[in-house]
Design brief:
The complex is a heterodimer of chains A (288) and B (356).
Chain A (H helix, E strand, L loop, with lengths): L8 H27 L1 E3 L5 E3 L3 H8 L1 H31 L6 H14 L2 H11 L6 H8 L10 H29 L3 H9 L4 H29 L3 H6 L11 H11 L3 H32 L1
Antiparallel strand pairs in A: 1-2
Helix pairs in contact in A: 1-12, 2-12, 3-7, 3-9, 4-7, 7-9, 9-12, 11-12
Chain B lengths: L3 E9 L10 E10 L4 E5 L6 H9 L6 E6 L2 E2 L5 H4 L1 E4 L11 H11 L4 H15 L14 H13 L6 E5 L7 H18 L2 E6 L2 H7 L2 E6 L2 E6 L1 H6 L4 H6 L6 E4 L1 E3 L2 E4 L2 E4 L12 E5 L4 E4 L3 E2 L1 E7 L3 E8 L2 E8 L9 E4 L5 E4 L2 E2 L5
Parallel strand pairs in B: 3-8, 3-9, 6-7, 7-8
Antiparallel strand pairs in B: 1-2, 1-4, 4-5, 9-10, 11-15, 12-13, 13-14, 15-22, 16-21, 17-21, 18-19, 19-20, 22-23
Helix pairs in contact in B: 3-4, 3-5, 4-5
Classes of the chains: A mainly alpha (288), B alpha+beta (356).
Chain lengths: 288, 356
């Protein structure tokens, strides 16, 4: 049968295309525009070529921030993915516990980023925060404003609190789709708890885990609001991630050229890493 | 291999069963002989799968005990009971190869690898999956997957019993025969105790030495295929076994005659019936002869199904089925006679003994 082409369909998607153009393509092109030119205001632009890109790539500031980002994302993934799986495995499968757990799990996800930041900023304060005061009274010298390690721990714990639920919910969705017969067959076959996980649960969770992994990688790599609210990038530059550095460059110093170049590099890094993860994980999937 | 005793097993899925109808399994008290091949036959929802899962230990019965060779195993796990079970829908480990799937139950029990290899090769040959051995199980068709499930059930040589829960539902008809006869051959060769759940009477009758018919949460009859055919203990068995099923007609019993509508039928025994019981007369279509003498019937439809014809008729204003030979003629004014030896009398659906 011959397929009928109906070009009118394009009119249906036109509003969306226009919206996307305004919200994404045009700003992106503006950034590209800034990244290859220099401006001193008055709408005067001078061609700068790749100068800004070279500047960014040659600065220690960029590499230090990138390293911090990579370490942060690695720690976040190393904690949230296994923890999410463990929690999902231990969630009830039926009964009144299911909705209770799901609502509790979803709660952190519903809180806006800056509110999460504020909550933890207050929570960790040594003078008035519950966490800070408690740790201090236990004799633990904790101060995220002065100690870089404490700042990192605070940010990591906060992110784990905020986002592990996402991994849990995705894994749980994968787990409940496994028919009971699989568990029964595994019992008959004498499979250990580990085998059940390795050969039944993990394969069924693989797809959702890939999504969880990519989402958590991209989000943690782009993290901005929470460290901005909690630590403001400090103490020193210890929690200055690329996003914070970018905003400092663009808005603090008003260096639009370097900031635009940094934005594009940042965007390409995320794109590249996500593509690598996706390719690696789906290839191993195909080989089984 | 083991003799299995079920002692007064009852099971309810709800927490606090109040009435009889809350029980999925109302009361099962039965012994399965060591090395027997049993078919568990019954309609969907009659408790067959529940009973099977109780034997394998996937479900703990609400009441009663299970004994293997005289030892109480009621509270032992599936693993400790050492049971193999094949489910209705294929369960495969899709990241493993076909070979590893079949080896899985053996490796979990730390069987030496040489023995694993020997057993797995045997099963691969039996199921015809040899050429797939090194491939992952994911890409297989539904019936190949089911063969793997079946193979995992058969691969262990030391099991107490093998339970089959409608294992051939998803297999195409031709392959069904092949696999069924292979299961049967394995039974002869190794003498496993086998329980085979099905709702297909042909499957049950060809597979088993003894057929256990379940209805509404209880076992209504256990017998050889011939017993089920000739002397159904319950009208349900009459309906369910045979094609078409037994004719069951409401009847008034007085001494040794039964009255169906205006027709009086002489019985060759005198049924003992409690007063007030609902009485019925059961006769299989095979034992009704159609001719010019006897009691009048009105033929409504004739179905030619090959070797014989099924005549649908009305007798004393009740529908009945009669089986007539392929070349048997249907007279213009048809009459029927019932073979007195084949008449069963039922009181409240249960067969009332006479001579039998």
């Amino acid at each position: 049968m011959e397929k009928t082409w109906n070009n009118k369909a394009w009119f249906m998607v036109l509003p969306v295309l226009v919206l996307v153009a305004f919200s994404a393509v045009i700003p992106l092109m503006t950034v590209v525009n800034y990244s290859v030119q220099d401006t001193f205001g008055n709408n005067e632009f001078f061609w700068a070529g790749t100068d800004w890109f070279l500047d960014v790539l040659e600065s220690d500031r960029f590499w230090d921030a990138l390293t911090r980002n990579l370490i942060f994302s690695a720690i976040i993934l190393a904690i949230e993915i296994p923890l999410g799986i463990v929690i999902a495995l231990n969630m009830p499968k039926r009964g009144i516990g299911v909705p209770i757990c799901l609502v509790l799990m979803a709660l952190p996800l519903l809180i806006p980023w800056n509110v999460v930041g504020t909550i933890w900023q207050v929570f960790g304060r040594v003078d008035i925060g519950l966490l800070g005061r408690t740790l201090a009274s236990l004799g633990i010298n904790y101060n995220y404003v002065q100690n870089p390690l404490d700042a990192w721990v605070t940010l990591i714990v906060m992110d784990v609190w905020h986002w592990t639920s996402l991994v849990v919910l995705l894994c749980y969705a994968g787990l409940v789709s496994i028919p009971d017969a699989y568990y029964q067959a595994a019992k008959i076959d004498g499979a250990s708890r580990w085998s059940v996980f390795r050969y039944i649960q993990l394969p069924k969770m693989k797809r959702v885990l890939l999504i969880a992994f990519l989402l958590r990688f991209m989000d943690s790599f782009m993290i901005y609001t929470e460290p901005f609210v909690v630590t403001g990038g400090g103490p020193g530059n210890s929690t200055t991630f690329l996003s914070i550095d970018l905003v400092k460059t663009a808005i603090g110093q008003f260096d639009l050229g370097p900031a635009a170049a940094l934005s594009i590099i940042y965007f390409l890094i995320i794109l590249l890493l996500s593509w690598i993860f996706y390719t690696v994980m789906t290839t191993s999937d195909a080989q089984g | 291999m083991a003799r299995i005793n079920l002692e007064h097993i009852r099971h309810a899925y709800g927490a606090r069963p109040k009435s009889e109808s809350d029980y999925a399994l109302r009361e099962v008290h039965h012994e399965w002989n060591d090395g027997g091949a049993y078919a568990l036959l019954g309609p969907s929802g009659c408790g067959k799968t529940t009973l099977l899962n109780i034997i394998s230990g996937l479900i703990n019965p609400s009441e009663g005990r299970i004994l293997f060779d005289g030892t109480d195993v009621t509270h032992l796990t599936t693993q400790q009971r050492n049971i193999a079970q094949v489910f209705q829908f294929p369960v495969i480990y899709d990241t493993m190869t076909v070979y590893d799937n079949l080896a899985f139950p053996l490796r979990n029990r730390h069987v030496p690898e040489t023995e694993v290899d020997r057993r797995v090769k045997e099963i691969l040959e039996m199921t015809g999956l040899g050429s797939w051995a090194k491939k992952t199980a994911r890409g297989l068709t539904a019936d190949q997957k089911q063969k793997i499930s079946l193979g995992r059930g058969l691969v262990r040589s030391d099991v107490s019993a093998i339970l089959f829960d409608e294992p051939l539902t998803v297999i195409d008809p031709e392959m069904k025969w092949v696999l069924r006869s292979q299961i049967k051959r394995l039974h002869k060769q190794f003498g496993f105790t086998m329980v085979y759940v099905t709702h297909d009477q042909t499957e049950a009758l060809t597979f088993a030495d003894k057929v256990v018919v379940m209805y509404d949460g209880q076992i209504v009859q256990i017998g050889t295929p011939a017993e089920l055919f000739e002397r159904p203990r319950h009208t349900f068995v009459g309906y369910f076994i045979g094609s078409p099923g037994m004719n069951v007609l409401p009847a008034e019993i007085a001494g040794n005659t039964a009255a169906v509508g205006d027709q009086r039928i002489a019985l060759n025994f005198q049924p003992q019936i409690k007063p007030g019981a609902r009485t019925e007369l059961g006769i299989r279509p095979e034992f009704i002869s159609l001719g010019r003498e006897g009691m009048p019937v009105a033929v409504t439809k004739v179905e030619d199904i090959g070797r014989h014809k099924v005549v649908r008729a009305r007798f004393a204003d009740r529908p009945i089925s009669i089986i007539v030979d392929e070349d048997g003629e249907i007279p213009a004014e048809p009459h029927v006679t019932f073979d007195p030896k084949a008449i069963n009398i039922y009181a409240d659906s249960w067969r009332v003994g006479g001579e039998a």
